[in-house]
Amino acid sequence: MSGNHGQSLEKALAIVDAAADAGCQGLKIQTSTPDMLTLDSREPDFIVRGANDDWEGQSLYELYTTNHTPFEWHAPIFARAAERGMVGFSSPFSVEAIDFLESLNCPAYKIASFENNWPDLIRRAARTGKPVIISTGMADLADLERMVRIVREEEGNEQLVLLKCTSTYPAQPHNTNLQTIPHLRAMFGCQVGLSDHTMGTGVSVAATVLGATVIEKHLTIRRADGGPDSSFSMEPDEMQRLVQECRQAQQALGTVFYGPTEAEKKSLGFRRSIYVVEDLAPGDVLTSDNIRVIRPGHGLAPHYLPEVLGRPVRQAIRRGTALTWEVL
Predict the structure, then answer these.
(1) Could you tell me the residue range of the domain that residue 319 belongs to?
(2) How far is CA 282 from CA 163, 306, 327, 328, in A?
(3) Which domain of life is it from (predicted)?
(4) Phi, psi of 276 (to 5 degrees)
(5) Please, are residues 208 and 215 in contact by the beta-carbon 8 Å criterion?
(6) CB-based contact 12:81 (threshold 8 Å)
(7) Which pTM was predicted?
(8) Strand partners, 219
(9) Which of 56, 214, 277, 280 is the most exposed place for a label (fewest CB within 10 A)?
(10) Residue 292: beta bridge partners?
């Protein structure tokens, strides 16, 4: 949801319902206050430049003020998510935010890319013993090794998911590098997914094919409503299509399999096979004039054609009869 609620609890709950109607399995909010994140300052370091047109020229404090979800909304949002069959959880932006979320029995924690270089936050989330999902935007290999070590070795938490993420808003497909997904899984032996800021469904579907088991995507009711994240968020009908296409892609992966599947067996009859195309008498020799490779597939397979040509038949055969070994 991020800041797409536009500071309206009614709209926030509508986004929860839209996510459920689209078939999402989880709904994530953000737990922060502007003071948890930055200083109320308009010094040059604190002004947003070149990140996103909707953010341009704002101070960080102003951006995080419009983006934050009031703490008193968390309980009703989580309750609505549970009523709609989804897991409601959050991205905390301070250790104190995790303490607050623990009072609500938040079932999982997502560490945002911009926070993945803060060991204390990762450590506190891992210490809960609950699943920890970490976006890997901007993280180099040393950063990755450090965050995984904190979760697993220091805090003994094996419930770790790493999300491939490109921290641009929106992100472009050519800059997404999805081949990193199987590499991350092999390197750290954990579940891997995608935090996707591209437009459309194609990148998330491709990530699913590469083994992503978590897809995170921003959702809004209407992009035209505006807001800090609206320009790179999906509308409900797009989210529904994303869910459907990712699940179809996951189902389509299947296993390594050759030969007809159970479902294909009914189609075997529509393949080509060898048929008698002229009436034959006992002793007649098979030639390219009296047998052909045609549909349906109830006769000998086409690759037997050279083997049967020139052989006599032992009985009369009517035109349109599938050729079998028994008549030769």
Answers:
(1) 265-327
(2) 72, 21, 9, 10
(3) Bacteria
(4) -80, 130
(5) yes
(6) no
(7) 0.88
(8) 234
(9) 56
(10) 275
